[in-house]
Design a protein that fits this description.
With 175 residues, this protein is of the alpha/beta class. It is built from six helices and four strands; from the N terminus they run H-E-H-E-E-E-H-H-H-H. It is 35% helix and 18% strand. The site of one calcium ion (CA) has 8 residues, from helix 6.
């Protein structure tokens, strides 16, 4: 691919991409809090949706009457119950629940902050080298692997690196 073709590809609006996060909120209030938090990450460039059929279980309060009381200083705790990971939020914790949810889920997703920009960098796949930035170093890796059957630089996960991946990169890249 020539440099000119590359630049024109960068200017094109291409395929749309979406990210899915897997969380299993329990109960109406927890579900509402998690949905609101996930909605705040979503943009036209990278819609973020929730799959609640898998992932860590999220609940307000402990699981069942035998659950240990919360340390009053903690907003949330991570426990394993019956082999399943759960994050339990302290209903009387030091943080408002919505804030505690954003904080815990940011840690789960490896987001540096609960912002759409951080989500785009982390979840779009366009940060190929994983340095927290979507920049020309990532494009260089994609170009280096162009035409190859590899997962490095394969943003749409079809096991080859081609124009579709460059278009996806161009949607996430902000010069
Ligand atoms: Ca990068
Ligand atoms: Ca691909």
């Amino acid at each position: 691919m020539t440099r000119l073709a590359l630049l024109s590809a960068l200017g094109l609006a291409g395929l749309s991409e979406a990210a899915t996060v897997k969380f299993r909120p329990q109960g109406a209030e927890m579900t509402r809090l998690v949905q609101a938090a996930v909605a705040a990450l979503s943009t036209k460039e990278l819609p973020v949706t929730m799959d609640d059929t898998a992932g860590v279980i999220l609940s307000i309060g402990g699981s069942g009457p035998s659950a240990a009381p919360f340390n009053p200083d903690v907003a949330a705790r991570v426990v394993t119950v019956n082999g399943e990971r759960r994050i339990e939020f302290n209903p009387q914790g030091p943080l408002p629940l919505a804030e505690a949810v954003r904080q815990e889920l940011a840690r789960e997703l490896g987001l540096s902050a609960w912002t759409a920009a951080a989500a785009r960098t982390r979840l779009s796949g366009a940060d190929v080298n994983g340095d927290g930035k979507i920049d020309l170093a990532d494009l260089a890796i994609i170009m280096n692997n162009y035409g190859k059957a590899t997962t490095v630089g394969d943003l749409n996960q079809d096991r080859k690196v081609d124009d579709a991946d460059i278009r996806l990169f161009s949607e996430q890249y902000r010069p």
